[in-house]
Amino acid sequence: MNELIHPALPFPLAPAGGRHCAFAVDEAGTLTLTGEGRSDLFHDPAGGDYNPDAGFLVGVPPQGDFTLSARVTVPFSAQFDAGVLLIWSDEDHFAKACFELSPHGKPMAVSVVTRRHSDDSNAFTVEDGNTLWLRLTRTGPAWAFHTSADGTRWDMLRYFTLDEPAEARDSVRVGFLAQSPAGDGITVTFAQIAYSEGAPKNLRDGS
């Protein structure tokens, strides 16, 4: 297992999941992550035998509240291609903040929270460009997702808990995913990655 030490993060990242993901970091700290085609992290709420099988890059953050953000650029090609900030406890407890290509061919901010089964919540479309800022926050036992067009003003996307087993809370991992469930693979760029201790003062307005 190859660990990645990113200059902006106080914890190492390592590949995980059921498929291969290739990654690299340049001198500016920009992470490039490639996910294999026909792989995803999603448990259909209608049931079925599907198991999350995508590969991803995650690590265990220090205990306590924190915030992780990145400027996500996705060269969209196939439906549901996405760059993702990921929270991962296990195959039954994970969450995704996604910049994703919708079935209508429009880039969209999407969130997914999985507590045994996944929900799927489309927030808004991005009419211009293939870049969006994503942010995740841990605050006590809860989590929040935010988005931004410029990395300065943030809007709340989701506020939730994973309902993961109590004994697993200190080992929840966070990181990055490049998904292409309907395509042949995708390479996503995560630039200006930033980590800070603590949570926003106001989760509702993102400040």
UniProtKB/TrEMBL annotation:
SUPFAM superfamilies: Concanavalin A-like lectins/glucanases. It holds the Pfam family DUF1349. InterPro entries: ConA-like_dom_sf, DUF1349. It comes from the Bacteria. This is DUF1349 domain-containing protein. It comes from Actinospica acidithermotolerans.
